[in-house]
């Protein structure tokens, strides 16, 4: 057994025997193909017409998924014996796999380009609306070089991270994931796609059509709620008008979208909790 298998044997002695076997065998096989390939290369060097070595080399390249090399070795062998069955078979298989690989690579590239293009359109839409994306303070260099999108749109780590991203709908309107925080109860609501022209009150009416189970005092009535957003840079809170649309709020001169997810805080109007929460804070009320 080659030496490089030993680390696996040692580090996995705690594991099940089955696991040990799988890990060590797959690691060894790759290694074995490499060393078998080296043997074949040496043999071919000594005797270029060594057909068996060429077949072995071609097979090793197949196992190592280097199809171009496998084809090259087959070609070389077929120069010696154009009817060699194994070589004809391996070349056909390598050819097929190589083309599949190239096709996949092309597809991936097209997809990547498409995604990049969509991202640029999205960013243009955000910029056009004068919506400001907050930047992570640690990435000032990137910020300048236009890494902005990268940083700010990939942010929200929910279970449905892929779903919950700002996107343009068919009508060219932005839909944002929006987070509602209820500090009094340490609760949240998450709206996956908040249409930019919807008003906050519309969502509150739906969200609080039934009082949530945590609202034991039954006071979270849509018309009694006050909404705020936080301006971290200035350590200030801004009250927002629930009759306003998401777009209007996002266009506020002090609104910065963080982590791709607009966030608002909701309080019950003049509740003891909100009084306490805002005491000593800089608050811009309507
Ligand atoms: C295949 O092997 C050749 C020669 O060793 C190498 O140059 C090439 O990068 C390899 N290709 C892949 C896909 O591993
Ligand atoms: C998460 O995504 C799945 C599949 O798209 C969807 O059915 C589900 O409702 C989503 N969950 C949330 C909380 O958005």
TrEMBL record:
<dbReference type="GO" id="GO:0005829">
    <property type="term" value="C:cytosol"/>
</dbReference>
<protein>
    <submittedName>
        <fullName>Tetratricopeptide repeat domain 4</fullName>
    </submittedName>
</protein>
<keyword id="KW-0677">Repeat</keyword>
<dbReference type="GO" id="GO:0051879">
    <property type="term" value="F:Hsp90 protein binding"/>
</dbReference>
<keyword id="KW-0732">Signal</keyword>
<keyword id="KW-0802">TPR repeat</keyword>
<dbReference type="InterPro" id="IPR011990">
    <property type="entry name" value="TPR-like_helical_dom_sf"/>
</dbReference>
<feature type="signal peptide">
    <location>
        <begin position="1"/>
        <end position="15"/>
    </location>
</feature>
<dbReference type="GO" id="GO:0005634">
    <property type="term" value="C:nucleus"/>
</dbReference>
<dbReference type="GO" id="GO:0006457">
    <property type="term" value="P:protein folding"/>
</dbReference>
<dbReference type="GO" id="GO:0030544">
    <property type="term" value="F:Hsp70 protein binding"/>
</dbReference>
<dbReference type="Pfam" id="PF18972">
    <property type="entry name" value="Wheel"/>
</dbReference>
<feature type="domain" description="Cns1/TTC4 wheel">
    <location>
        <begin position="169"/>
        <end position="271"/>
    </location>
</feature>
<dbReference type="InterPro" id="IPR044059">
    <property type="entry name" value="Csn1/TTC4_wheel"/>
</dbReference>
């Amino acid at each position: 057994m080659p030496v490089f298998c030993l680390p696996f044997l040692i580090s996995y002695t705690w594991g099940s025997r089955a696991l040990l076997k799988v890990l060590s065998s797959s690691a060894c096989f790759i290694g074995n193909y490499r060393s078998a390939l080296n043997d074949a290369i040496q043999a071919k060097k000594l005797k270029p017409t060594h057909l068996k070595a060429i077949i072995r080399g071609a097979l090793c390249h197949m196992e190592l998924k280097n199809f171009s090399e496998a084809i090259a070795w087959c070609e070389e062998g077929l120069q010696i014996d154009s009817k060699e069955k194994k070589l004809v078979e391996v070349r056909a298989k390598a050819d097929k796999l190589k083309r599949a690989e190239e096709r996949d690579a092309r597809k991936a590239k097209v997809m990547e380009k498409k995604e990049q293009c969509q991202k640029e359109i999205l960013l243009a839409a955000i910029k056009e609306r004068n919506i400001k994306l907050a930047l992570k303070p640690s990435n000032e260099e990137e910020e300048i070089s236009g890494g902005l999108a990268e940083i700010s749109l990939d942010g929200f780590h929910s279970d449905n991270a892929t779903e919950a991203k700002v996107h343009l709908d068919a009508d060219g309107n932005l839909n944002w994931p929006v987070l509602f925080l209820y500090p009094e109860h340490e609760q949240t609501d998450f709206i996956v796609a908040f249409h930019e022209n919807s008003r906050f009150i519309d969502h509150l009416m739906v969200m609080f059509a039934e009082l949530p189970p945590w609202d034991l005092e039954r006071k979270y009535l849509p018309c009694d709620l006050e909404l705020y957003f936080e301006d971290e840079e200035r350590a200030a809170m801004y009250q927002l008008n629930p009759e306003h649309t998401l777009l209007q709020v996002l266009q506020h001169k002090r609104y910065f979208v963080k982590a791709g997810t607009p966030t608002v805080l909701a309080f019950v109007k003049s509740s003891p909790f909100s009084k306490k929460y805002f005491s000593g804070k800089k608050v811009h009320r309507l």
